[in-house]
Structure to design on (343 residues):
């Protein structure tokens, strides 16, 4: 009788990755994983990429045979990862995106592979909700795997469940942080992700239960409503420059890109790219719509009356240091140096 394989390096999770309507930015972000890098992370967790259109050597008939084997069941795989929106046009045929060499729309391949997968993962907001690919008049009839914007459904329908019993797992972001993807796959390799670990939009709570606002280096300016007026300014970008960090779900400012970067740390307003329909805010991304000076999009869980009262009090108490620094591109007044012992 053969001995059980106890080697921790033995692949525990086989991943098949497809790309559809999108820019490939989530794969590019994934390649930026570090400490450890992507290959070391996957190897260490026992995750094996069966095929990825940008990272694998296989092409042509070899790939078609692999996909046919996955559909027929002769090739075992665990996770179907899909990057990019599902292109259903024209008129529901899916012919806007045909898998090269197969003369079959990619949406047909996705439907058949999703029916065989233990887990199905939407990588990026396009795959999750339609994203930028579905913006405007949406001529390609793009949608997410199981959502169309905020509405459940998408390509696979509301009732779809993978072999594990889970719906599509939406690792949203434009692009996704590499660790959001790798840690989701690592959790799946350990059978450690349940329906309770997904938020109402089926995003993994490990990142989605935090706000971009958490850990933002501009939080002191936010507290006193000392606001930036232009993108080079140091102040809070919520009041005038369209920042949605107080509403956006993601740990971007506590789990930094390349160990040091985020949108707000780079001087760019958060545009809430992990949310469905972020691509259609109804105004320019860099504008903050307001009525009588009150932003329409208030911070999460903040009643309007409280926000108005807090803003008035905060602005009245704003230290001169923050008031002046907020509207400059460099530190003008440093914090005062004072003793901290009680006197």
């Amino acid at each position: 009788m053969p001995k059980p394989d106890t080697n921790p390096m033995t692949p525990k999770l086989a991943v098949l990755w497809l790309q559809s309507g999108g820019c490939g930015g989530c794969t590019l972000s994934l390649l930026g994983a570090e400490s450890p890098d992507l290959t070391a992370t996957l190897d260490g967790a026992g995750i094996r990429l069966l095929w990825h259109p940008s990272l694998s050597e296989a092409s042509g008939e070899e790939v078609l045979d692999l996909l046919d084997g996955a559909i027929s069941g002769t090739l075992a795989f665990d996770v179907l990862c899909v990057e990019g929106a599902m292109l259903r046009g024209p008129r529901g045929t899916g012919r806007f995106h045909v898998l090269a060499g197969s003369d079959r729309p990619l949406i047909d391949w996705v439907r058949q592979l999703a029916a065989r997968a233990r887990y199905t993962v939407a990588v990026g907001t396009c795959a999750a909700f339609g994203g930028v690919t579905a913006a405007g008049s949406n001529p390609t009839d793009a949608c997410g795997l199981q959502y169309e914007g905020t509405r459940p459904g998408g390509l696979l329908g509301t009732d779809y469940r993978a072999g594990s019993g889970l719906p599509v797992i939406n690792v949203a972001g434009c692009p996704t942080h590499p660790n959001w993807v790798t840690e989701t796959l690592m959790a799946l390799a350990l059978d450690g992700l349940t329906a309770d670990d997904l938020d109402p939009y089926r995003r993994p709570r490990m990142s989605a239960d935090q706000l971009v606002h958490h850990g933002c280096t501009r939080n002191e300016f936010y507290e006193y409503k000392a606001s930036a007026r232009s993108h080079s300014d140091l102040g809070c970008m919520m009041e005038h420059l369209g920042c949605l960090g107080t509403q956006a779900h993601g740990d971007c400012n506590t789990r930094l890109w390349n160990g040091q970067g985020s949108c707000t740390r780079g001087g760019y307003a958060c545009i809430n790219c992990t949310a469905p329909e972020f691509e259609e805010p109804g105004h320019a991304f860099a504008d903050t719509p307001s009525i009588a000076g009150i932003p329409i999009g208030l911070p999460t869980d903040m009643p309007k009356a409280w926000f108005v009262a807090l803003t008035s009090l905060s602005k009245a108490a704003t230290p001169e240091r923050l008031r002046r620094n907020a509207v400059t591109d460099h530190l003008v007044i440093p914090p005062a140096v004072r003793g901290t012992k009680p006197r």
Notes: Confidence is low (pLDDT under 50) at residues 1-6.
